[in-house]
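hey so u asked for the seq, here:
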Amino acid sequence: MKKRVSVILAVVMLVFCLTGCNDGPQENTDTTTADSSDVSSGDASAKEIGVVFCDLNNPVFVLMKEAIEEKAEEMGYTVTVLNSEGSSETELQNVQNLISRKVGAILLLANDSDSAVNSAIAANEAGIPIVGFNRPINNDAGDAEIVTQVITDNVSAGETAAEQAIELLADDDDPQIAILRGTLGVASDLERYEGFISTIEGTTLEDAIVAEQSGNYNTQDGYTTMQNILQACPDLDLVYSENDTMAIGAMNALEGAQMTDVMIIGVDGSEECISYIVEGKVTATVAQKFKTMGSTAVEWGVKAIEGEVEDAPEKVMIDTELVTSENAGGYESK
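ran it, structure tokens below
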């Protein structure tokens, strides 16, 4: 009898020990792919929205971040913001971090349109709805389920910049234009370039492009690239910069070369650039509506969490507006 009791006790203790060893965190070796209904609906109890920015060095992204936080709070949600610091690898890690937090939805400003689809697929596999904003996720192959993409009409922005250039150079017999392109391969660069070039075709500016180089959407590269262009093209009349940070770099380079009569048109509508328009150092900018874009992305994220995205459009296009010396004073970002 004692022997039987001892055996029973030994078995009980063994079961207890095995159960106790599983109390700690375990590596999850399962890979579950959510179906499209899971991706669109999310977890209605999750009141946290994850937001991933390609970087937060650009002041307009900070403006957008603030608008996102404000709108989320208004709708009863909290926000976790992560910065990819210009790295697609970090972007994917950030998305995985948000997945581990079990956020209700993810808003993604892609570092690179093509590689961002991997981040979208990761969110899909976790059953978390994802909304692209500002820079579209390239999902042409249909590999990912994306709720919608809230983006600026960048082709229209390029067209607006070109129309302004045509007006400014209407009386110039031999106009010369340099284009500071953004990060090559990024959708916004291609679209802003396409819009500008297509609009000047058949006009007096059709043959006016004397230089075009990438300034990688940042001030320092814009400055260096503009210096290089001026070496080869000292008689410029106008610079079309595909964003405001490069426009400011170009402005500094032109000031250094004592060529302050060269006109500059940017794109973004950053507070800093608009202040230079007021001072007469920059001619114009095509302002994006960053606050509108950010708050609209939150609205679609919340709709996805609450299962209200059956008829979501593939893209939600946000328009732009031209800012010049006529309306720059007191201009408030939208």
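The chain has eleven helices and twelve strands. Residues 2-20 form the longest helix (19 residues).
lmk if thats what u needed
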